[in-house]
Each structure stands twice: as C-alpha cells, then as structure tokens.
Amino acid sequence: MTHVLPISFSLNGQAIAIEVPTHTLLIDLIRDRLGLKGTKRSCDMEVCGACTVLLDGEPISSCTTLAVDVDQREVTTIEGVTPSDGLSRIQKAFVLHGGLQCGFCTPGFIMAVTALLKATPHPTDEQIRHYLHGNLCRCTGYTKIFEAVRSLAVEQVSEDAA
Amino acid sequence: MLPSPFEFERPSTIADAVRAVGESGDGMFYSGGTELLLAMKMRVIHPDRLVDIKGIVGLDRIALNDANDIEIGARCTHKKIASDPVIREYVPALSSLCANVANVRVRSVGTIGGNLCFGEPHADPPTMLAALDARLVLIGPSGTRVVHADDFIRSELETVREPDELLTVIAFPRPTGPVTYRRFKHGERPSVNVAMAWSLGAGGRTITSARVRVGALGSRPQLLKAVEDALQGISVAEVRPAIEAVLPTALDELEVNEDRHGGADYKRHLAGVLLLRNAEEAIAAGGSA
Fold first, then answer.
1. What is the pTM of this model?
2. Which of A148, B106, B162, B177 has the CB geometry, 3.0–4.6 Å to A99, for a possible disulfide?
3. SS3 for B188?
C-alpha cells in the first residue's frame, strides 16, 4: 500500500508544496513530477555523480535520496545555477577548456564544483581531485575537467589579489 | 528501481523510535540511507516502515567525556566526523578515514552508525573502531546494552543488533599512542584495510599494548593476535623485526574471501604491506611523541 506525505521545500529558490509517496526518490520527483530534466540518472547507486543536486548546499545523490527527506530544506539543481541569459562562470569554464563531450555527466560535475568552490574558493590540485573523485566521466579523461576547475581556482585568486 | 512502499515515521525521542520499529512488522531505523536505500532499490530488503532518526536530538554529538572516552553519536555523518575538532585532535587517523569514505555525496549524508549496522565487510570504519576498542551502545525495548566493536558484526551484512535496538553512541578510550589506518581499494570500497592502535608507556619509547585489526578480507574485521603479542612490551625501535618475525604465520591464519578484489595470497600480501606501512607511520609518530 502506498503511503503519501505532504512536503514543502525550496527548489532553486521557489517554494514547492506537494504530496509524495514515501518511496518516491528525489530524482523522480525533480525530473518526472516537477519537470526539471537537467539532473541525470546513470548508475543509480551513488557512484557516478550524474544525479548530483545540492541539499542545503551539500552535494547528494538524488537517485538514492527519499523525496520526503527534503521536507523543509533547500534543493538546488543544475537549472538553479544556470543564469536565464546564458551560462555561469563554472559552465563557461567547462566550455572554454573542453571539459565535456557528450555532456551527460556535466550537470553533476557542475553541481559538485559549485559546492566545492563555495566551501573552498581556492582549492589546491589535490583538493580538486579529492572532491571530484566521485564524479565519473567516460569521455574527457578528466584532464580537461580538471583544467576547467583549476582555471576557476586560479581566476579567483587573481581576482582577490587585484 | 523504486523501493517497495513503506510507512515513514519521524520520532523525536529514542524511546519513540524504538517503539515505532518494534510495533511494525519489518520496520527499520533510517538516517542517511546510503546503504539502506541501495538495498531497498534492489528489493533485497523491503521494510514496511522506515523510522527516521534524524529528528532525535543528541545523536549527532561528538565529545571527549569525563572518563576520557571519546563519544561519537551514531548518526554523525562521515563529513561531520572528518571535520570535527575533537576527532582531529585526538584521532586524526579516524578523521582522515572518514574524509575518504566512498565519495563526497555519501559523506554528506551517510552515517558512521549506519555503516556499522549494515555490516558490509568492505567498509572502512569497522576495522578502525575495532582497533580502537570501541564500545557500541544499543538501546532497545528492554533497556540499554553495550557491545564491543569486535563482537558487533557477526558475519557479512549481519550484526548482533536486534531490529528494534537503536545504535546510539560509539565510545572508545582516548588513544594513548599512534593510531594508523591504511586501505587498498579499486573502486569506492576497500579491498583490504589494516588499522593499528598502540598504547605507549611514559616517554613514548615503549609499546605497552597494541591492537591490530585487518578488515575486508573475511566476513568481519579480524584480530592479528601474533602481531599484537609480538609488539607488547617492546621498544618502538624494535617494531619492524618483531612484526616481520611473526607476520607470515599471522597472515596465513586470516580468513580470506577470494572475490573480484583479488585472490587470497594477493590479499594477504597486501595486508602485510599495509601493516608494515602503518608501523612505519606509527614509529615516526611515536618517536616524536
């Protein structure tokens, strides 16, 4: 028997009030009921990072999170970090450095990098590798992604110095 | 795949949580869900009720208590333990272990208690907690009991915890010597791991006792008794030859599952390498203590 609970949460800054079956996964709520298709399902077991969203600013796997668990909390998806008139500076860096090919893993990477740079604005090379270790990409070989993120870390350092 | 449907409860006290699981047919405690939801999605387990313990105050506390024990609330996330000032000061090896569990998303929500209760053999924390001589506090309908980390995991994915017993706190004596941990892994879970904790005598030159545990090889963390005996009472300078003298026999006695992580001889070899590297690190740390 399906059990339904009402939840209220913020999705990319917008207040959502909705009833969800308790066994609904966050990724299905976001994609299928709320229509935001930027979050991708891939491994479905918390390993690949394609479904990464931020919960109160922390990266989580939306494929293995219950929708009822975001009640009274803030969820941010790729749509929430993409400006309406173009790309964010993180997205631009991925484009500029060739940090994507097929693009399927990219939303997850962008969310992870968003959280990384918020917590650690000037990450070292080791911190970048450690943080992104759990996001898989089968196209780029990671080097270009790493270069994109490193450019942001360096860019921020030079902005601060100026 | 979707989990099967279940009731979802959010109690605010331990007593209510224990009651909520006990009253259900096949209820389970729930916090981060990083292990549980995977198993539910695979339909390996299908609880009829999940009892969310995240609303219970106090289960995410970390403190050094008056008895000189370090207490870690069972629903502390790996991330919290990794960055906690008490853990960083007194058990930096545990801080580092938690900073490297799985990936950043799992560390955001996955808890140390959930990790222990799942009883997954290829896990990081159980090996270290056994080496630290941790005690696990379980609260159930008939009261509280304390189980040593060594006795908690019974076999693969099986612990001595009753379904309606909630793991609340993990406590261990503040280490009085170097604590070291190393693992070897291919994916996100360790193929082999070794934890070692020494108690040092005054001056930091003599090992009064040592605890050595090897994990992920068999169904649960295993004791390396011959190595512990060899280390007891010797000076830090004598450690390497003392370990090497007993290591081959000690490794042969380990229960080792051959699986996709490797064959038995290979894994035993890895365990020996990790153990000796831990010893080198402990010697360096002990010498400077």
1. 0.96
2. A148
3. coil
